[in-house]
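User: I'm putting together notes for a lab meeting next week and I want to include a structural view of one of the chains we've been expressing. I don't have a solved structure, so I'd like a prediction I can at least talk through. The sequence is below, exactly as it appears in our construct file.
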Amino acid sequence: MEAFSFLENKMATQLEKFFKREDLEKLEDEFQELEEKYSDLIEIIYLSSEKMKVAKAKEFLMQGVGRRLRILKHAIENIYSIFPLDRETLMNEDELSDLNINLHA
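Assistant: Thanks for the context. Below is the predicted structure for the 105-residue chain, given as C-alpha cells.
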C-alpha cells in the first residue's frame, strides 16, 4: 500500500495521536476508490432494475436508492474537500456548518 504524502508532514504526527497510520492510509485509499465503487453500484442498480417486474419497486430502486447513493458520494467528496486529512488550519464557522451538513447526509 502506497502511503500518501501528508503522512510525512507534521499534521501526520498530530493525526497519529488519534488514528493508526494504517487506518489513515486506508481512509485515503478508500476515498481514491470512491468514484469506481459508486459507478459499480449504479451499474448494479440499473441491471437489477431491469429484472424487476413491479414498476414501483423499479422506481424506488432507481430513484430512491440511486439518488441516495449520489447524495452520499457528493457528501463524502465535500467532507474531504472541506476537511482533508492534511489540513493544518482551523475551520471557520461556515466550514464547520458545511461539514456538519455533509456528515449528516
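A couple of points you could mention at the meeting. The first helix runs from residue 10 to 15. The mean pLDDT is 85.

User: Perfect, that's what I needed.
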